[in-house]
């Protein structure tokens, strides 16, 4: 069993809990409220900017040129290409640039992005990547599952199709391969830190969806 396969197995129950979350069940059924989907899109667009920064930091720490290119390209994809996608969906769902700019990060989004940036800056290259992996891998697998369960005439089908695409899954497999290679050469303490970073991000993935479903906001605002 590879290192990443071990991570997936160790966190299988959390992944299943993510699949079973009402946000993802209702997204597949097409019954998710537009208000919740709009909330999610705005926070996801905020998240992607920070995720791109964290990927760029990881690229700078890469142990060889291929890693620099791999994660610099991933950062570009997160900030440029994904935001193009979001812009289209935001137009479709009536979210203006002013609405987006006026909406702050929720506590869950703030927590997740702060963790990813701190982990990428302060930890070693393998640990930084392990913290970034759940956004790639869990998102891809959730997208595949939702795509398989998506009901006819789902108003969110275009969104579902994007994250179930083979191109996205190919990128995920490449990240997994890089992390498995790094884990093979890492000492036990580093592998433990990698597992901890993965688990923390996986928990924050769940919290991100839950926050969208609960229409999370700062309780003091």
TrEMBL record:
<comment type="function">
    <text>Catalyzes an amino-pyrimidine hydrolysis reaction at the C5' of the pyrimidine moiety of thiamine compounds, a reaction that is part of a thiamine salvage pathway. Thus, catalyzes the conversion of 4-amino-5-aminomethyl-2-methylpyrimidine to 4-amino-5-hydroxymethyl-2-methylpyrimidine (HMP).</text>
</comment>
<dbReference type="InterPro" id="IPR050967">
    <property type="entry name" value="Thiamine_Salvage_TenA"/>
</dbReference>
<dbReference type="InterPro" id="IPR016084">
    <property type="entry name" value="Haem_Oase-like_multi-hlx"/>
</dbReference>
<feature type="active site" description="Proton donor">
    <location>
        <position position="205"/>
    </location>
</feature>
<comment type="pathway">
    <text>Cofactor biosynthesis; thiamine diphosphate biosynthesis.</text>
</comment>
<dbReference type="InterPro" id="IPR026285">
    <property type="entry name" value="TenA_E"/>
</dbReference>
<dbReference type="Pfam" id="PF03070">
    <property type="entry name" value="TENA_THI-4"/>
</dbReference>
<protein>
    <recommendedName>
        <fullName>Aminopyrimidine aminohydrolase</fullName>
        <ecNumber>3.5.99.2</ecNumber>
    </recommendedName>
</protein>
<comment type="similarity">
    <text>Belongs to the TenA family.</text>
</comment>
<feature type="domain" description="Thiaminase-2/PQQC">
    <location>
        <begin position="9"/>
        <end position="214"/>
    </location>
</feature>
<dbReference type="GO" id="GO:0009228">
    <property type="term" value="P:thiamine biosynthetic process"/>
</dbReference>
<dbReference type="GO" id="GO:0050334">
    <property type="term" value="F:thiaminase activity"/>
</dbReference>
<keyword id="KW-0378">Hydrolase</keyword>
<dbReference type="InterPro" id="IPR027574">
    <property type="entry name" value="Thiaminase_II"/>
</dbReference>
<keyword id="KW-0784">Thiamine biosynthesis</keyword>
<dbReference type="InterPro" id="IPR004305">
    <property type="entry name" value="Thiaminase-2/PQQC"/>
</dbReference>
<dbReference type="GO" id="GO:0005829">
    <property type="term" value="C:cytosol"/>
</dbReference>
């Amino acid at each position: 069993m590879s290192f990443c396969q071990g991570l997936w197995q160790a966190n299988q129950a959390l992944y299943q809990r993510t699949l079973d979350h009402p946000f993802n069940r209702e997204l597949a059924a097409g019954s998710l409220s537009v208000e919740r989907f709009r909330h999610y899109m705005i926070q996801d667009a905020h998240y992607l900017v920070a995720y791109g920064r964290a990927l760029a930091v990881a690229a700078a720490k890469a142990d060889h040129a291929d890693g620099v290119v791999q994660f610099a390209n991933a950062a570009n994809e997160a900030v440029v290409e994904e935001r193009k996608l979001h812009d289209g969906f935001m137009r479709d769902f009536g979210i203006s640039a002013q609405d987006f700019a006026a909406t702050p990060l929720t506590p869950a989004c703030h927590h997740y992005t702060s963790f990813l940036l701190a982990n990428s800056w302060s930890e070693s290259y393998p640990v930084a990547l392990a913290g970034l992996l759940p956004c790639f891998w869990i998102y891809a697998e959730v997208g595949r599952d939702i795509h398989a369960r998506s009901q006819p005439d789902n108003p969110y089908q275009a969104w579902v199709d994007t994250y179930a695409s083979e191109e996205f899954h190919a990128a995920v497999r490449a990240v997994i391969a890089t992390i498995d290679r790094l884990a093979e050469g890492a000492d036990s303490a580093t592998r433990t830190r990698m597992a901890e970073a993965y688990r923390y991000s996986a928990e924050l993935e769940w919290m991100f969806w839950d926050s969208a479903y609960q229409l999370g906001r700062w309780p003091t605002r």
